[in-house]
Design brief:
The chain is of the alpha/beta class. It has 23 helices and 10 strands.
Length: about 575
């Protein structure tokens, strides 16, 4: 249970609920033990009537009183058991809530490399299925363990007080039981870990298929992926069945051992009664012991189930701990928040992606003054998007420094930095929500007027009001309701409504026609006069009005200057300009 020790902090947090649950459990067990004692007394009363010809009315009254006491104590024990469940199970729900929040919060602070290494389905499985398994440990497993331990202690004390020798005979099967639980628990842990791993594979596979369902349908690959899913499901079923087979051994073994204990009570108890041994003055003692043994039936039987829950939780918590122990590579070194103006400088910056070991930037240096516009052009894979990722500190440089307002970017408050940046990614991601809420994602408290103005500046307002529900139109997953160009423009509206100090546009006009592009660029020129703007593009038309243009090739700056300077010198920019100019004329 080494991995489950991580949860001890939650037991401390909810210690009052935990202790109250234990107290209620103790009291409930004490009340439940009145029944065997009262039944034993009833047997003695009946025996005394036959042996001593006692008063019939008195015996009848005593039996009636015993029955009423049995009903009363049973009701009290039942109510207390209900309160025990309300206390401990509700506590486990609080722990589940806290743990899910902790995992989700940790997911949020982890860096881009983490999400490159791990699949979304696996992340979802750990925060859902694995946390659910852990809750079963914190709730039912802990509750029944406490219940079983207290019942064992109380019942054995009662049995020992009645007849120490018969108690010893009754408990003879327990060492065998302990050994079986030990062996089976180890096997359950191993098989449970394997099963959870296969469950994660199914989660990841289905999540990817659902996300890319249009591609699957376009290539008519439904049958192939159906077969792959069936293979995974079959493997998962096999692992699940292997686990279930081991778990299924517990129940019958527990019942068999309890049955053996009952036989021992009847035989040895009967012999002791016949021989008139101390503590066995009445046949009611045998009945009392049989009830005690049967009171242990569920706790003993539950040991197998609880052990299974603990082993599954151990395997799940181990998987959760793996992520919780993962340290983010991008760390906030400064708690103090300072105003950001937006002057950016790269000084001999190089960067290599860990997962591919590809050097995306090589000794790159440039400067953008506050409120100015920089355009970055270059072939695919030349490192354009990497520059934007480094500015927003999604990654840290391999070597070299990035200065923001003459301060090293690593020394700035990370969240203040990102809060000062509005970014439009190359792959426009929209949430399954209304268009209005997607635009307000950039500024949660934005008014409807601000939303409309942002949409107008992004030249998407006319498209939106053409929908029947206009700004209240619900988008499908990842904004599937909209076209590629509409998604890009909604993303632009989301960035500019924020009115940030720095605007980053990562080839966000690639799906927009040249006429609409011209309108958007003109609007951006007006609204970003005092904003540092960096535009990554493949089009000269997006870059020509920038204060400065740099051209990248294989991670190096090969050209640098204004539009007029670059079209008048031989190189990539002038060639691209002439090519796109001729294409425009042909169109």
């Amino acid at each position: 249970m080494k991995e489950l020790q991580y949860l001890n902090k939650y037991f401390i947090k909810y210690k009052y609920s935990f202790l109250l649950g234990i107290i209620i459990t103790i009291v409930a067990q004490i009340f439940s033990l009145f029944t065997p004692k009262l039944i034993s007394k009833s047997f003695k009363a009946i025996e005394s009537f036959h042996s001593n010809n006692s008063n019939h009315a008195l015996i009848k009254d005593e039996l009636l009183n015993n029955i009423l006491l049995i009903i009363g104590t049973t009701l009290i024990a039942g109510i207390l058991t209900f309160l025990m469940r309300q206390t401990l199970i509700v506590m486990s729900r609080h722990v589940e809530f806290d743990l899910k929040n902790e995992v989700f919060k940790h997911y949020e602070v982890l860096d881009q490399n983490f999400y490159k290494r791990n699949r979304t389905g696996d992340l979802m499985n750990r925060i859902s299925e694995d946390v659910a398994k852990v809750r079963m440990y914190v709730g039912p497993a802990v509750m029944y363990t406490i219940n079983t331990l207290i019942r064992f202690v109380v019942v054995i004390i009662y049995m020992y007080n009645v007849s120490p020798r018969l108690t010893l005979y009754t408990l003879l099967p327990l060492p065998i039981l302990s050994y079986i639980i030990f062996r089976l628990s180890k096997e359950i842990n191993k098989r449970s870990t394997t099963f959870q791993q296969y469950l994660s594979k199914i989660f990841s596979f289905t999540q990817e298929i659902f996300s890319g369902i249009r591609v699957v349908k376009a290539y008519s690959l439904e049958n192939q992926y159906q077969e792959k899913l069936e293979e995974l499901a079959e493997e998962s079923k096999t692992k699940s069945m292997n686990l279930a087979k081991v778990q299924a051994l517990f129940g019958p073994l527990m019942i068999a051992l309890i049955g053996v204990s009952n036989l021992i009570v009847i035989y040895f108890g009967g012999m002791m009664y016949i021989n008139h041994e101390p503590g066995m003055e009445s046949i009611g003692v045998i009945a009392e012991f049989i009830l005690y043994v049967n009171m242990l039936t569920w706790p003993v039987a539950s040991i197998g189930w609880v052990s299974s829950l603990v082993q599954e939780a151990e395997a799940s918590q181990k998987r959760i701990n793996e992520f919780l122990k993962t340290k983010p590579e991008i760390i906030n070194h400064e708690e103090k928040q300072t105003p950001i103006d937006g002057a950016i400088e790269f000084k001999n910056v190089s960067f290599t992606y860990d997962d591919t070991n590809i050097e995306a930037l090589k000794n790159v240096s440039f400067k953008v003054d506050n409120g100015k516009t920089l355009a970055i052009l270059g072939k695919t894979g030349s490192g354009k998007s990497t520059i934007l990722s480094l500015i927003s500190r999604l990654y840290d440089t391999t070597s070299g420094d990035i200065l923001l307002d003459n301060k090293n970017i690593k020394e700035l408050n990370l969240y203040n930095l990102r809060g000062s940046i509005g970014i439009v990614p190359q792959d426009a991601f929209l949430f399954s929500d209304t268009i209005k809420n997607n635009i307000k994602f950039g500024k949660e408290n934005a008014t409807d007027e601000e939303v409309i103005n942002a949409a107008k500046n992004a030249v998407v307002h006319d498209n939106i009001i053409a929908f029947s529900n206009q700004y209240e139109t619900i988008l499908g997953e990842r904004g599937i309701t909209l076209s590629g160009g509409q998604k890009q423009r909604v993303s632009i509206a989301r960035a500019i409504i924020k009115k940030p100090n720095i605007l980053l546009f990562d080839d966000c006009l690639s799906a927009v026609d040249t006429e609409t592009e011209e309108q958007i660029l003109n609007n951006l020129t007006e609204i970003s006069k005092n904003t540092t703007t960096i535009i990554v593009s493949h089009r000269v038309s997006s870059a020509k009005n920038a204060d400065k243009i740099i051209v990248l090739d294989e991670g190096r700056i090969i050209q640098e200057g204004s539009h007029n300077q670059l079209i008048n010198e031989d190189g990539y920019y002038s060639e691209l300009y002439l090519k796109q100019l001729s294409e425009k004329e042909l169109n």
